[in-house]
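Progress note, sequence design subtask.
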């Protein structure tokens, strides 16, 4: 399948029969640049080599919207590489990319890896650009990467946030969804051992309304534990 067809099918085609099960933890859209690149804003990416995630990846989609609110198109950048986080770090270390974008928790291991080899800077998304992005996708939230999250990061950095969700087909058996959700909540310690960001998850947070219909099995569980 051609990449451009795959991208359109993944992003632009309306998806039906999808229900919410749980919101787990926030993800941070992060833009990192080499400290000596002269990049202080997304606007400064014009003409620069940039590493993005593979087409269809959430962070790649957010990157395109971030470029849009700054009046940039992918063709306005220098060489654009659609690669994994690991390969993006390698490109940055070798100066074959001057910035890369990613969507994950903080601190991101890939950024820590890069920071161990060279000085970096995180690029902030100011309020006016955040509001412009909210017009493109009301699901975005404002998050802050606290100072000290990465080596030599002396100030807070504003960025775009979005949640990691569990979703299911709306016609999936309600008992199955109920048992899966209950099992997740009852064994949160095991999940936290895999993803530390899960530590703060509570049934009330997991039941957050994201504008997607709640699955009947999840609704039953949340009502049972008093989260709704």
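Output:
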């Amino acid at each position: 399948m051609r990449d451009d067809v795959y991208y359109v099918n993944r992003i632009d085609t309306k998806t039906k029969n999808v229900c919410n099960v749980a919101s787990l933890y926030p993800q941070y859209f992060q833009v990192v640049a080499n400290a000596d690149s002269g990049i202080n804003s997304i606007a400064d990416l014009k003409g620069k080599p940039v590493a993005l995630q593979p087409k269809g990846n959430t962070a790649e989609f957010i990157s395109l919207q971030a470029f849009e609110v700054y009046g940039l198109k992918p063709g306005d950048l220098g060489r654009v590489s659609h690669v994994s986080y690991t390969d993006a770090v390698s490109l940055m270390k070798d100066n074959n990319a001057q910035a890369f974008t990613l969507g994950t928790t903080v601190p991101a291991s890939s950024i820590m890896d890069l920071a161990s080899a060279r000085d970096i800077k995180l690029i902030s998304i100011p309020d006016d650009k955040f509001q412009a992005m909210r017009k493109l996708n009301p699901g975005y939230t404002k998050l802050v990467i606290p100072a000290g999250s990465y080596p030599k990061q002396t100030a807070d950095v504003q960025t775009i946030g979005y949640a990691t969700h569990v979703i299911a087909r709306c016609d999936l058996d309600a008992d199955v969804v109920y048992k899966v959700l209950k099992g997740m909540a009852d064994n949160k310690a095991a999940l936290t051992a895999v993803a530390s960001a899960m530590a703060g998850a509570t049934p009330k947070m997991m039941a957050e309304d994201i504008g997607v219909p709640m699955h009947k099995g999840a609704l039953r569980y949340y009502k049972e534990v008093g989260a709704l």
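The two ends are 43 Å apart (CA to CA). Work on this subtask will continue into the next period as scheduled.
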